[in-house]
Amino acid sequence: MRHLIEGRKLGRVRRQRTALLRNLLTALILHERIVTTTAKAKTLKPKIERLMTTAKRGNLAAKQRLMKALYNDQVVVKKMLQVLAPRYKQRTGGYVRIIKKGYRAGDAAPVAIIEFV
């Protein structure tokens, strides 16, 4: 039993899982709405919430933490700091929502939409 073990393995080893989540974070920030499996969306939600809280600080340390978490991608970090952070300045949490969409045709995996509120 996996009592008190945080996170999902998503059928991948640690490096693949980290890369997958970074790519999902980048796509979500750029497009502000993505369609993925429900398990991936639920895994992604706390990570994007934490990054958004960091981005709201807006100082150099926050920028450096975002650069470390998001593959050192200037475009994504710039959008996070200049577009998304001011939008949610007054909000204390709950920046994204997960909407269940149904099942994928190929393998019947449960699919969800994760988007910024």
Residue share in β-strands: 15-25%
Major sheet size, sense and barrel closure:
3 strands, antiparallel
CATH class: Alpha Beta
Alpha-carbon distance between the two ends: 35 Å
Fourth CATH level, the homologous superfamily: Ribosomal protein L17
Radius of gyration: 15 Å
Tell me what the CATH architecture is: Alpha-Beta Complex
How would you describe this protein?
- The protein has 117 residues and is of the alpha+beta class.
- The protein has a single domain (14-116), classed as Ribosomal protein L17 (50s Ribosomal Protein L17, Chain: A).
- It contains 4 helices and 3 strands, in the order αβαααββ.
- It has helices spanning 14-31, 38-57, 60-69, 74-87, and strands at residues 33-37, 96-103, 110-116.
- The chain has a 3-stranded antiparallel sheet.
- Strand 2 (96-103) and strand 3 form a beta hairpin.
- Helix 2 (38-57) packs antiparallel against helix 3 and helix 2 packs across helix 4.
- The longest helix has 20 residues, at 38-57.
- It is globular.
- The mean pLDDT is 95.
In brief, what are we looking at here?
The chain is of the alpha+beta class and 117 residues long. It has four helices and three strands, in the order αβαααββ.
